[in-house]
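EI: anyone free to look at a 136-residue chain?
SC: sure, send it
EI:
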Amino acid sequence: MAGKARAHEPPRVLSQRSEVGKIEVKEVVELESNTEASMPKFESVTTSKLVRQAVKLDATAAQIVDRFANEYSLEAAERRQVIRQVRTARMSQRSLAQKIRRMRWKFVEGGKKKFIEWLNEYLSEIEDHTSESDEA
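SC: here you go
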C-alpha cells in the first residue's frame, strides 16, 4: 500500500466472535481514498510565477488563470484569488508605464540623457526595494 494516499479518518474496527472459546478477534481495516480532495497539495502558484505570467500581454487574465488552474488544480476560491492578483500585477505595470510617460516630458530641457538617468535611478529603486512580504 506504499505510495497511496490514505483518508484522514480513524481505522474501522470489525469485530468477529469465534464459537471456539468465545474469543473475540478484531481486525483493523484502513480505508483508502484516491480522491483529489484527500490528496495533499504540494505546489501552489508563487508570486514570482504569477507576476512573470501577468506581465506577458499576449494572454488575457482569464487565460493565465486557466493555465494556472490546470497546472495546479485550483479550486474556485483559489482561481478568484489568482485572477485578482494577476489584475493587480497588471495595474501596477500600467501605473509604472504611466509614470514613465509623464516624467518623459519633465526632461525636455535636459534631453534624453537626463531622462535616461532618471529612469535608470527610478527603476533601480524599484528593483532594490524589498519588504517582509516579498517572496525570495
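EI: The CA atoms of residues 47 and 134 lie 8 Å apart.
SC: 👍
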